[in-house]
Amino acid sequence: MDKNQLREETIEFAVLVADMCDEINGCSVYKNQIIRSSSSIGANLFEAKYAQSRADFINKIEVALKESSETEYWIELLFRKNKLTEEHYNLLRNKCGSIRRKLIASVTTAKATKADFHH
Questions:
Q1: CATH number for the domain including 21?
Q2: Which of 10, 38, 101, 118 is placed for a possible disulfide with 17 were both Cys, Cβ 3.0 to 4.6 Å?
Q3: For residue 104, is it within any domain?
């Protein structure tokens, strides 16, 4: 997967989450949390571009991975609070899951690669 493509996906996802949150009445704490976690996925991925070492790179990707997991939690919570339609829930869950799987693949590759560190 092209790193720039994944970066773009994380931006589009964060915008989608923010746009959907704009349509939700109430639950401001939950909305703030999901906006923070969803945008943090991409922020950490962007930071990984300038990692100082392989360990730093892996750490940034793993933080992005944790943020994607947290985002999935908030998606589920908002759905169970009837703040997301089933259509929006499935869309967000699928996009977040896709990003999460790509991050897992990136971490796995980075950990398995023994060559000099270049990102």
A1: 1.20.1440.60
A2: 38
A3: yes
